[in-house]
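Exercise 7. Given the components listed, write out the predicted structure of the assembled complex. Treat all entries as one system.
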Amino acid sequence: MGIEIERKFLVTSDAWRDAAHRVVPMAQGYLNDLAVVQSGAQNASVRVRIEGDVAFLNIKSRELGASRQEFELPLPVDDAHALLALCVGGRVEKRRHLVHHGGHLWEVDEFLGDNAGLVVAEIELDAADAPFARPDWLGAEVTEHSRYYNLALAAHPFRDWSASERG
Amino acid sequence: MGIEIERKFLVTSDAWRDAAHRVVPMAQGYLNDLAVVQSGAQNASVRVRIEGDVAFLNIKSRELGASRQEFELPLPVDDAHALLALCVGGRVEKRRHLVHHGGHLWEVDEFLGDNAGLVVAEIELDAADAPFARPDWLGAEVTEHSRYYNLALAAHPFRDWSASERG
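Answer.
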């Protein structure tokens, strides 16, 4: 089994758009109130996820010790859109642009809605220190900053970030 | 479109067992706390349902005025059993016996767990007053008694019924 390392960066310009060869609309949300799962009153979270023309329902058990169960059910995209409208938490929408550069595939996520204005670029590497060619438009690394996680962006969207959080 | 009327009865003996030609293990439960959906803090309920060798996830939106959305996703039975273990509400298990009598198919539900001891027989008819042959083992009709509904049996199981409720 391979281990994949994901590194995440800000972008400093729109220059990546010229090299983008495909865009995938993505959206996710949770049918359940996330606080209810965290409180232990419920044992599983139910996420709706749309990636272009496919969609999934993801069910994750609350972490109990080291064990956690995950289930993924394919979902018709029309149903997924209807379910997304019923979601009460974790709602994030973005356009994922695929950009080839220097032999690597970058995923440039352009967020929408309450996170509009935020753009981050991700690269998957075989090791944390694997070399890669830096595109001109690449900015500071934010891999370790949890405020860029999907769930964090749903709870505290980019619209509400302070100047220092926007870095 | 046909309209189906379901009538529900108690049974007075075990004589139906001799005529039962098939048994289907059934189970259901809800991943979410039902009170959360009823309170309006959540917009949809997620039910896990196993019927013999098939299983489904049923998502229902909270009723808003006259409109309600329903989604049914097929689920591997193994996943369904694992998900049932994560359920926090509406958990009911029973064995459904199929019994032919007088040209009609009876479903005799033998409940398990907290509802062990309860057995009810259901028949589907084309009209509420459609004639049917009464088997010897058929008891009083309970069609209109809401305490026999699955959700009611989950919240207030047969084990906790008073003598008059068992009546």
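Discussion: The interface with chain B takes residues 31-33, 36, 41-44, 46, 57, 59, 61, 69, 71, 73, 75, 79, 82-83, 86-88 of chain A (CB under 8 Å). The radius of gyration of chain A is 17 Å.
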